[in-house]
Amino acid sequence: MNGKIYPIGIQNFEKIREDGYFYVDKTAWIYQLVKTGSYYFLSRPRRFGKSLLISTLEAYFQGKKELFEGLAMEKLEKDWIKYPILHIDLNTQKYDTPESLEDKLNGVLYEWECLYGTSPAEKSLAMRFEGIIERACRKKGQRVVILVDEYDKPMLQAIGNEELQKSFRETLKSFYGALKSKDGYIKFGMLTGVTKFGKVSVFSDLNNLDDISMRKEYIEVCGISEQELHDNLEQELHEFANAQNITYEEICHKLKMYYDGYHFTYNTVGIYNPFSLLNAFKYKEFSSYWFETGTPTYLVTLLRLHHYDLEQMAHEETTADVLNSIDSASTNPIPVIYQSGYLTIKGYDNRFGTYRLGFPNREVEEGFIRFLLPFYANNIDRVETNFEIQKFVREIEAGDYDSFFRRLKSFFADTPYELARDLELHYQNVLFIIFKLVGFYVKAEYHTSEGRIDLVLQTDEFIYIMEFKLNGTAEEALQQINDKHYTQPFETDKRKLFKIGVNFSAKSRNIEKWIVE
Fold this sequence. Notes:
Blueprint: H1 13-18, H2 27-36, E1 39-43, H3 50-61, H4 72-76, E2 85-89, H5 98-116, H6 125-140, E3 144-149, H7 153-157, H8 162-176, H9 178-181, E4 186-193, E5 210-211, E6 224-225, H10 226-244, H11 248-259, E7 271-272, H12 274-283, H13 289-292, H14 298-305, E8 317-319, H15 320-324, H16 334-339, E9 344-349, E10 354-358, H17 362-376, H18 382-398, H19 401-411, H20 417-420, H21 423-438, E11 443-449, E12 452-458, E13 462-470, H22 474-483, E14 496-505, E15 510-516
Parallel strand pairs: 1-4, 1-5, 2-3, 3-4, 13-14
Antiparallel strand pairs: 6-7, 8-10, 9-10, 11-12, 12-13, 14-15
Helix pairs in contact: 5-6, 6-8, 10-11, 17-21, 18-19
């Protein structure tokens, strides 16, 4: 045991360096950022290292050379000039009224005005910010560095409330406009967030920002690459494998399957989720570490609000323009879900300029689908979800299809009217969630087309071939299995085979009947 101390939840660079915490050196990318531009924006999912990046930039611009001893920056930087820094962290407040954002910004400005003075002519938040930038530069004799962490937190919390979002948008738009109006007094500016609100939104006046979110040069600025994993944690990989009682090759494969797979543009290395990866190494256990820190319900709100077909999520196609910018009035939930880290880039069609999206890894896929279930199925809460899926799996493995379908029927009981209006999509989404979750424990293959779900479930002893109808009959569904020879691939299989036809009724808003052959 070499005793590495993992910085779980620690986002302060100075604390990490002074207290001897494990640190993956990102300072070469930071040096490149500082020396090749002035204004940057970076979007990354939550707990992906954005706050640590901002903190590292702050230490660098404070001239704290001693903190960079042994890192790439020590050899790269020669001057170590100290600059005045204006650091805003919007992650520390609940934004539920226009006043909540104004109070937060007012508090930050007041602290700076105590340092750099005030002017009676500066009435608005934006004017005060502009005045502070100019006075800080004049007082310190160096241009100002502006660092904004989680710039979009108010906008995200207001999703679904257009009036509040409009208020936040107008406040932030004018406030951040100081970065452009006071350019001559600013050395460097960096904004980070989960999402990029564009078009007629927060960024419409900030055309001097260089958005590096999808730039290949900066893919590794946050998160941990495969190379960094092996360069920094090779001994720990062997210790982890021993603790799990598996081989070195198996631990590498399992870590990759669970926590790797983030691609922020095409043809680039995969990036591991740093929060989950470091937790896994600390406890030498696999768990949904990132997911358990809280998934925002606004994602589900968007999916349901726009009647999204969940099955489409696993192979969504879109363009860079869509991924790069979120319009608060948009009816497309995919950019928010992508930028929040629940989908990532899986492929790219150079001819048409389209990206294929999918879940980055097992942790996200299973966690997100499990998270969705209580919002789509009635009488199920988050605590019960795991137990319900266990019961489904055990019934399938025991050949008890009647219990399986009775349980499934309870998931559709008392379907709310607003969902019943689009019953076909609702029952498809519920079935997708359930069979996706069951598929993590038994082999499940399914596809949808024109409102039908064809499903094959395979266990050690049984094969289930199911056909679902809406406002047809269970007999018709069973007949389709026979007519289209769905059982043909399994004719030589020794396992017991069940052919099951199922019918949904729009009138009862539930499963009307199932028959088995």
